């Protein structure tokens, strides 16, 4: 008998052989079938030119329910345009044989990279670059020779060299994604990298600034700002003595450059570095004290609205007076968005005497202060843009009074 439900991790976990088939409730034709032995395959059923086709999307373990859902949407869209995706798949296989797409490097070059660029050109370049750097030793390997044992050896080497488990997990996920596409496109029959389980991570440890560290950071930023303005004054005196054209007087600005407003905004909104550097003035409403993180700039792929507290609002107001209100909020002289702030950030952190604190930890700092101010975790989740509460739960231990109040209800 067939059952109905949205195909996701939860429904697939409860999928039993006696159910035989699970029809998705949102995407027409998208379904999963389970064998008596418990193996699950994903399909898309469609009709084209009077013909009925059951297109295999992949197998659980090789691809996740989320990837299967994305594939179902993608293939359904092609079918709607009159494309017979089953025939297209066969044609691709034949083309692959002719092109001899057999090594990881060739697969990436001829198929995976073009596909990534078509989906998200903004992230494709860095993704492919990291994949080649992290797995350079595998580029000349046949795809079928990239086994779980091969990856376990790589992973042990990385762990022994001191690389953090979370970093290793991210790198492994990128390779698994690449190999899963090779399976879905028929380049190889299967891969066994799903046997390499991710390292368990302790997400309960959150690095945030204590009151003294925050005070030192703020003081270091103000001192840096004054130093830059004094250097500009000195440089202009030198220019004036020699009859050179003077540079703009920074004393007329609230901020000497971009670093302090970026840090203050991160501390008061919890925005990621990429979200801050891609922020445009058109996404900010100072009158209503609100800014929008657009879906194309958000890691989750979903837009979110963040209220501006007094410091965030004042920071943006002053920065607008300093730089204008068009284009990117943080930009280069030619109007292009800033790409990096690592050097200036490292300098100010060193000046403040703060150890083991990354720019991304400002996001943890924002969330931690909210939780310690008794803001509920779901509101924190919404402000951070987490897809579910699981990621936000890492901050729960910072509100011990909530747990104490709970147990006291029955005490």
Helix and strand arrangement:
Blueprint: E1 2-4, H1 9-13, E2 21-23, E3 30-34, E4 40-48, E5 51-59, H2 65-80, H3 85-99, H4 104-119, H5 121-134, H6 148-160, H7 165-184, H8 211-241, H9 259-269, H10 273-277, E6 284-285, E7 290-293, E8 304-307, H11 310-323, H12 342-352, H13 361-372, H14 377-384, H15 389-392, H16 400-408
Parallel strand pairs: 1-2
Antiparallel strand pairs: 2-3, 3-4, 4-5, 6-7, 7-8
InterPro entries: CB (IPR044068), DNA_brk_join_enz (IPR011010), Integrase-like_cat_sf (IPR013762), Integrase_catalytic (IPR002104), Integrase_DNA-bd_sf (IPR038488), Integrase_DNA_bind_dom (IPR025166), Integrase_recombinase_N (IPR010998), Phage_Integrase (IPR050808)
Keywords: DNA integration, DNA recombination, DNA-binding
Organism: Alkalimonas delamerensis
Structure description:
The chain is 50% helix and 9% strand. It has three domains: 2-84, Double Stranded RNA Binding Domain (2-Layer Sandwich), CATH 3.30.160.390; 100-195, DNA polymerase, domain 1 (Orthogonal Bundle), CATH 1.10.150; 211-404, Orthogonal Bundle (hpI Integrase, Chain A), CATH 1.10.443.10. It has a five-stranded mixed beta sheet with strand order 1-2-3-4-5, covered by helices on one side. The protein has a three-stranded antiparallel beta sheet with strand order 6-7-8, with no helix packed on it. With 411 residues, the chain is of the alpha+beta class.
Task: Describe the structure concisely.
The chain is an alpha+beta fold. Helices cover 50% and strands 9% of the residues. The strands form 2 sheets. Strands 1-2-3-4-5 form a 5-stranded mixed β-sheet, covered by helices on one side.
């Amino acid at each position: 008998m067939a059952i109905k439900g949205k195909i996701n991790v939860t429904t697939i976990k409860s999928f039993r052989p006696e159910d035989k088939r699970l029809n998705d409730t949102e995407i027409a034709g998208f379904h999963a079938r389970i064998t008596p032995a418990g193996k699950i395959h994903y399909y898309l059923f469609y009709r084209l030119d009077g013909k009925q086709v059951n297109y295999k999307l992949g197998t659980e373990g090789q691809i996740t329910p989320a990837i299967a859902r994305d594939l179902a949407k993608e293939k359904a869209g092609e079918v709607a345009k009159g494309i017979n995706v089953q025939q297209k798949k066969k044609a691709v296989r034949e083309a692959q044989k002719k092109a001899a797409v057999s090594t990881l490097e060739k697969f990436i070059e001829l198929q995976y990279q073009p596909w990534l660029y078509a989906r998200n050109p903004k992230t494709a370049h860095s993704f492919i670059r990291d994949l080649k750097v992290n797995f350079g030793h595998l580029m000349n390997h046949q795809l079928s020779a990239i086994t779980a044992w091969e990856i376990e050896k790589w992973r042990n080497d990385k762990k022994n060299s001191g690389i953090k488990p979370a970093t290793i997990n991210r790198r492994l996920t990128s390779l698994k994604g690449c190999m899963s596409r090779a399976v879905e496109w028929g380049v190889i029959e299967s891969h066994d990298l799903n046997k390499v389980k991710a390292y368990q991570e302790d997400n309960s440890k959150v690095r945030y600034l204590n009151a003294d560290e925050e005070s030192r950071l703020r003081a270091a930023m103000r001192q840096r700002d004054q130093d830059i303005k004094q250097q500009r004054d000195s440089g202009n005196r030198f220019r004036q003595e020699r009859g050179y054209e003077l540079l703009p007087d920074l004393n007329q600005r609230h901020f000497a450059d971009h670093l302090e407003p970026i840090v203050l905004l991160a501390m008061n909104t919890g925005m990621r570095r990429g979200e801050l550097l891609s922020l445009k003035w058109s996404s900010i409403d100072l009158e209503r004290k609100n800014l929008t993180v657009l879906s194309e700039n958000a890691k989750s792929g979903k837009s979110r609205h963040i209220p501006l507290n007094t410091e965030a609002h004042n920071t943006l107001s002053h920065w607008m007076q300093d730089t204008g209100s068009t284009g990117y909020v943080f930009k280069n002289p030619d109007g292009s968005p800033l790409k990096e702030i690592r050097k200036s950030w490292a300098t100010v952190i060193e000046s403040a005497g703060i150890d083991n604190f990354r720019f991304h930890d400002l996001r943890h700092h924002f969330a931690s202060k909210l939780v310690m101010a008794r803001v509920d975790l779901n509101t924190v989740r919404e402000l951070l843009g987490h897809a579910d509460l699981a990621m936000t739960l890492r901050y729960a231990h910072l509100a011990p009074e909530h747990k104490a109040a709970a147990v006291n209800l029955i005490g």
